[in-house]
Design a protein that fits this description.
Bound molecules: zinc ion
Distance between the termini: 26 Å
Radius of gyration: 15 Å
Number of strands: 0
Strand content: under 5%
Structural class: mainly alpha
Helix content: over 70%
Amino acid sequence: MFLTAHALTAAVLVDRLGVHSTLWALVIGFCSHFVLDAIPHGDEGLDKGKGFVRVLWTWALADGLVLTAMLFLLLPRVPWILSLPVLAAMVGSIVPDALQAVHHLVLPLSRYMRFHHRCHEYFGKRIGIRYGLLLQGGLVMILLTLFILTPSA
Ligand SMILES: [Zn+2]
């Protein structure tokens, strides 16, 4: 799943749970990543095939730009998005995919990669990238609605 969906989900989660501990928010964000990854989401196979590193970096750059743009758009109406626990949750939700980059570029983390892969395959179903983008776009729209229309915990 894309970082935008992970980070916004983690932000809403810790806010709605009323988590004020930065450490717990980080842990919740980290764990929420694997739960979301279990839902078929269309981009599970981006880290395979010839030239996958360049493909991954391209998607990650676009994803990071979308997330940054959304945070800037949300900030005037949702100032708590920059609270420490919410930021920690968003960082925690991104760490699992950053560890994938570490595995591919710096240090093999084979056991971790097997676990992450098993999360992607949890339901044994896959959908195409187009449906995945629709699903994740829908999720992001719901999260944005929650951010803007409902009060913080
Ligand atoms: Zn992941």
